[in-house]
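User: Please predict the structure of the protein below. I'd like the answer in structure-token form so I can feed it into my own downstream comparison script.

Assistant: Understood. Taking the following sequence of 216 residues as input:
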Amino acid sequence: MMRISESLIRRENSSRHKSVILSMTKFPDDVQAALATMKVATSEAWPHRAMRARYAAFYFWIFAVGSWLGSISVVMFGLDGGNSEIWKNTITALSVFCGFMIATMLFSGKIDVAKSLTLEQLRHVAAKSNHLLVSQMATLACHFMSLASVSIVTGFHEISPALSGYAIPVAFGFLAVSIIRAMLIPVQIIEIHRFVHAALLEEKRREISKELDLFK
């Protein structure tokens, strides 16, 4: 019975995989490649459903706090889309964040000391780098959503003040998530560098111990 159930599960998974492939063939090649890459990368970075739920719950809470602060700013301080200097500075900061994140992603996946690492260490560093890249992509998406929300706040201020006002809490929510995620990225980079440095130090210790053994 166990073998039959396992074979049924495999057939079901293979049929689902085939349906996903068939659905993806409707998109252009670059879109298909992007979807396939993101599917593999996210499954490796966040393999467990409980982990994904924990991430979603935490950042939803951050988004809710930011939206609450945005609502207070509208009600108590009269913030609206007409405060051009505030929103211009926000757009400038977000644009800088986006450029910095893209530049960081170009260098985060490089492992220049691969020859100095053991197989297990290299696997660990590769997994950490993949997690960092997926995290950076999510942060970049938050920056883009913040830019879109701020654009709605400023762009619809004259056309539809109500829509502009409703977009302010949403913009504050995405800004809160963007700030928190932007603060975590440098810490994740430090974590990878510390592990690589520890591996290099261990390799140097082994080389020195071998040289000392030769003189014995």
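That's the full token string. Residues 48-214 form one domain.
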